[in-house]
Design goal:
- The structure holds three protein chains of three kinds.
- Chain A is an all-alpha fold.
- Helices cover 71% and strands 0% of the residues of chain A.
- Chain B is mainly α.
- Chain B has a two-stranded antiparallel sheet.
- In chain B, β1 (54-56) and β2 form a beta hairpin.
- The longest helix of chain B is centred in the N-terminal third of the chain and has 35 residues, at 17-51.
- Chain C is built from 18 helices and twelve strands.
- In chain C, α8 packs across α9.
- The chains are: A mainly alpha, B mainly alpha, C alpha+beta.
- Chains in contact: A-B, A-C, B-C.
- Chains A and B meet through α1, α3, α4, α5 and α7 of A and α1, α3, α4, α5 and α7 of B.
């Protein structure tokens, strides 16, 4: 299959790629040209950053960026710590009930917090955390996916290294920190990228638990920005849309290989 | 634990009370994650079932009503509409995006000129927020001056109200979701393809087998576990993917594009009827559990955790 | 007994925490406001709030913009159930029954020193908020539906560019002349567009009123969707697209309709007067604004949002909220608000201010919606409004998309509404 490619196939592959990029190209076109050209394509249309300036001025996007960055950092930090500890327990300890416990963890792969919005809202309200960034993060901090992925990696750590560390006098946490964590680096990067892109893009739950600008992440900010009561200004909305996706897009273009490999690693079992 | 023999536990040499210490250590390590998992996954599942059997009066008291809410649900045409829509949405998006993903993976896996670019193009939609994607495609589908109708007008075709017509709205959303997801599934196929031995192909092509024959009889069967894995993921995704409805259609026109989770959102937070929302959520939980049973009960027997 | 003690303790705690947090005796108010974040309206509100705070240094108002009316209502109710309601909010004037049922709001009567204040406003705008002899809301962002027409298109079609259709038949006939097709028979300009998403119920009510039919009773417990004249109203609406071919088939989006009109894709549109200033600023052609055409009579439902004060607010907060609302609705501010947006100023006194008189002289369209108040009726408002709106909107969409006959669609909406409203009787 790795042999020569038939020209027809090559053309088809390229056509598909162009079709796949077209919506994005359109978004950039519309965001970078005056409103009058949003609906009529013309090569002579003047280039402008005006739409970005207007979107930036009209809504507190700086605050939204900050909220989203705080959110993904909080989620990622929590997930990494909790998943590491739990995965370590599952990978290297023999204890009663571990099989059932692991099955209960895996349940979250199927029934994610995303579908339990009604009850989780109740819980967050009871905790008095409504309209805060921790409220968005809490249901996601314990990640079955993270635990599963790290458990797989930890299991492949050679026993000799563990023994060597023990001989040097390391306790269980010392072994985790000095042996397991460094060896699982690629898994951490993979999980981190997947997690960051998931929570950067997450929408429904943040929409439900946040009300104010102070807690709202970018996605919710964009949705509220694009839901005007009386009419739509396409160019400004596409500019805001481009702003929302730009950081991830740029990161993706810069670290394309890592992204693809991370998603691959996260998917292989 | 079935695989304890393969990987010996950290401390087992001093038997007896050591086992007890082991368990304490393990549970302490598990505790933080366990608390949060129970609080935001397991407890809510049970609470949902309970709340579906009660209604809350205006003065705040809860009254047990048994299966009344389920009867109301059975008589609710919007619920059935949402359920059927979910079915068509899954059927429309999953096979096509899997087929496209496989095709993309095969292309990108070749020594084709510009494969880096191709991979980039196919994968990019995956990293974009659904909400942003919905904004862009909304403009695509806008009647008359939207990009799609402008394209059609080049061929002398008239405007069409894509999202405003029940006969086309679902199709439009399906196309968009395929665009968003195919690149994501491609990655899994790409990973699997790279693990296949190239010798197989070469051996087969020396035998003079046609390319299609090789794919059909060798590559595709070898990729079967990946296909099943992707399919399961896609099914789960199809139940929780509703962000675009908030922007594009609000489930309309006349509920033609509504999905179960979106209807739950509407009932719970717009109509403030949390007991009925709980009843609807139970249905969603049953559907997801069925998927889980298929996955853990049947499929994972072949590809168990290593 | 226990309940009362809890309440007392809660009150004491609230008092303590307020006192501790704010030594300067300042009152904090959170106000939910139904508008997309960004856009000119946010700026206008922010500016007014800032000026109010300058005049009243002991009150701090935080405006929270949460999207359209439905989104904002959802947010307000959700926040209330979560125990953190705002102290005041602008919400649809028609949400009053729902807010009362949820025990969320307090009437203004006991909060103001003189109830004569209520008489300052147009009675048509007060109607939705006055129930059982009490006043539950004060109008602010209020509107009626008006007809916008593109004078250039009228001229091109050989019509008098200064004369808008006055009756349904005239609108149909004019639309037939206004429609424009390209060489291959595709329509490039429609005659008229009436939006069907979001506020389909509002447009249907306008048509029903013009046909001489009320949509609900005053107690908000009955709806009349299957009355022959309501059905005839929807029939006419559907005929515009399916029989006369002057309106696009399928649903017409509320949010993008303004763009359609500004792009010249439709020669006429029905839309809120709240859009007026935005259309004025963006139109590249001369346009006119008229009252909606008549069948048996002229008419439009009122629309838009009013101020509500929430029950959970402390007495000081409620007093401060009233002060803020009185400031916002004073004639000069109401006039300023109307000029900057197009919404109807809520009191006759606002139209007597010099600024407003001058503005109307140069731009007569500014008073059309106000003049239409003479024919206006209160907007559809019943218990469990959110659900009823969905039923009507679904019925409208089912009819305009051709998936159901108007009679059928409205019968379904009526049956579903009856079931929901039974609980409120």
């Amino acid at each position: 299959m790795r042999g020569r490619t038939h020209p027809v196939e090559a053309v088809a592959a390229w056509l598909l790629a162009l079709v796949w990029l077209a919506p994005l190209a359109y978004a950039f076109w519309s965001a970078l040209h005056p409103a009058a050209y949003a609906t009529s394509f013309s090569l002579s249309a003047p280039f402008t950053l005006e739409n970005f300036a207007r979107a930036w001025k009209q809504a507190p996007f700086a605050r939204y960026y900050l909220n989203t960055i705080v959110l993904v950092t909080l989620v990622l930090a929590g997930q990494l710590i909790l998943s590491t500890l739990a995965a370590y327990a599952f990978a290297r300890f023999r204890f009663r009930g571990s099989g059932i416990a692991f099955a209960l963890v895996l349940l979250q792969l199927m029934i994610m917090p995303d579908v339990l919005i009604v009850e989780n809202y109740r819980a967050i309200a009871k905790l008095g955390l409504l309209d805060t960034i921790p409220a968005i993060a809490l249901p996601y901090l314990a990640s079955a996916f993270g635990i599963f992925l790290l458990r797989q990696t930890f299991k492949s750590v050679p026993q000799e290294l563990v023994e060597a560390a023990r001989v040097e006098g390391a306790g269980p946490l010392g072994i985790l920190w000095w042996v397991y964590v460094p060896l699982a680096r690629p898994t951490y990067i993979a999980f981190g990228l997947v997690s960051v892109s998931y929570h950067w893009n997450n929408f429904l739950w943040p929409l439900i638990v946040t009300n104010s600008v102070e807690a709202r992440p970018l996605t919710v900010g964009l949705a509220v920005f694009g839901a005007p009561e009386t009419g739509v200004d396409w160019s400004v909305i596409t500019a805001a849309t481009v702003m929302t996706m730009a950081p991830l897009l740029i990161a993706f273009l810069l670290f394309q290989r890592q992204f693809v490999q991370s998603f691959m690693r996260a998917g292989i079992r | 634990m079935t695989d304890a023999a393969v990987s010996p536990p950290v401390a087992e040499r001093r038997a007896g009370s050591q086992a007890w210490w082991n368990a304490v250590n393990a549970w302490l390590l598990l505790l933080p994650a366990a608390v949060l998992l129970v609080a935001f996954t397991h407890w809510p599942i049970l609470a949902t079932i309970r709340h579906s059997l009660f209604i809350t009066r205006r003065n705040g008291t809860e009254v047990f009503v048994g299966l009344d809410s389920y009867q109301a649900m059975a008589a609710d045409p919007i619920f059935w509409k949402a359920l059927i829509n979910n079915f068509w949405f899954a059927l429309g998006t999953i096979p096509t995006s899997i087929a496209l993903a496989l095709l993309m993976a095969i292309w990108v896996n070749r020594n084709m000129r510009g494969r880096g670019f191709l991979r980039l193009a196919y994968f990019t939609p995956t990293v974009l927020p659904m909400i942003a994607v919905a904004n862009i495609w909304l403009f695509f589908y806008t009647p008359d001056y939207g990009a799609l109708d402008q394209l059609r007008s080049l061929f002398g075709l008239g405007g069409w109200n894509w999202l405003g017509d029940p006969s086309t709205v679902m199709g439009c959303l399906i196309v968009m979701v395929i665009w968003k997801e195919a690149g994501f599934f491609m990655i899994f196929y790409l990973a699997a393809l790279q693990q296949l031995s190239p010798d197989l192909d070469e051996a087969a092509s020396i035998e003079g087998a046609s390319r299609w024959y090789i794919f059909r009889r060798i590559t595709f069967p070898l990729l079967m576990p990946t296909t099943l894995f992707v399919a399961i993921n896609a099914v789960i995704n199809s139940f929780k993917l509703v962000d675009h409805l908030v922007i594009m259609t609000k489930g309309g026109p006349n509920n033609a594009s509504t999905l179960l989770l979106y209807y739950i959102y509407e009932v719970a937070f717009t109509f403030q009827d949390s007991s009925y929302a709980a009843t609807l959520t139970v249905v969603l939980l049953i559907l997801l559990s069925a998927v889980a049973l298929i996955k853990f009960g049947y499929l994972d027997r072949r590809i168990h955790y290593q | 007994m226990f309940a009362r003690r809890t309440v007392l303790m809660a009150a004491a705690f609230t008092a303590l925490s307020v006192a501790a947090a704010r030594p300067a005796a300042a009152v904090d108010l959170t106000m939910y406001y139904p508008v997309a974040v960004g856009g000119p309206v946010t700026k206008i509100i922010d500016d007014m709030v800032a000026r109010f705070e300058k005049d009243n240094s002991d009150i701090k108002v935080t405006a929270v913009y949460a999207g359209n009316y439905t989104d904002t209502m959802t947010k307000a109710m959700t926040a209330m159930k979560g125990g953190q309601p705002p102290q005041l909010s602008v919400l649809l004037s028609t949400d009053v029954f729902t807010l009362m049922d949820e025990n969320a709001i307090v009437p203004f009567d006991s909060l103001v020193s003189d109830t004569a204040w209520f008489k300052d406003f147009y009675p048509a705008f007060m109607a939705n908020g006055q129930i059982d002899g009490k006043t539950w809301s004060i109008p602010f962002q209020r509107s009626t539906i008006v007809l916008y027409w593109n004078k250039e298109a009228f001229k091109e079609a050989g019509l008098d560019p200064e004369k808008a259709p006055a009756s349904w038949d005239e609108m149909t006939e004019m639309s037939k002349k206004l429609i424009k097709k390209d060489g291959s028979g595709n329509t490039t300009r429609w005659g008229v567009e009436i939006p069907t998403t979001g506020y389909g119920y509002w447009m249907l009510q306008a048509l029903a009123i013009q046909n001489g039919q009320k949509m609900m009773n005053e107690a908000g417990t009955e709806v009349y969707f299957t009355a022959p004249k309501t059905v005839a109203a929807l029939d006419y609406w559907v005929d515009l697209s399916r029989k006369h071919n002057v309106m696009p088939t399928g649903s017409i989006d509320w949010a993008t309709l303004r763009t359609d009109f500004l792009e010249g894709k439709t020669a006429m549109m029905w839309h809120t007067t709240g859009n007026l200033t935005a259309v004025k600023d963006a139109a590249k052609f001369p346009f006119g604004v008229a009252m909606l055409p008549a069948k048996e009579r002229r008419g439009s439902p009122t629309g838009g949002g009013s101020f509500y004060i929430f029950k959970n607010a402390s007495p000081e907060q409620q007093k401060a909220a009233v002060k803020f609302i009185q400031w916002m609705t004073a004639p000069e501010r109401a006039a300023e608000w109307s000029m900057k947006t197009g919404y109807v100023a809520v009191s006759p006194a606002a139209y007597k201010t010099k600024a407003m008189k001058d503005y109307a002289k140069g731009f007569p369209a500014a008073t059309v919606a106000r003049d239409q108040l003479e024919y206006a009726v209160p907007e559809l408002s019943v218990h469990d409004n959110g659900r009823i709106y969905k039923f009507v909107n679904d019925a409208v969409q089912a009819a305009v998309t051709g998936s159901q006959k108007p009679q059928e669609a409205l019968a379904a909406a009526q049956a579903q509404s009856d079931r929901v409203l039974r609980a409120s009787k």
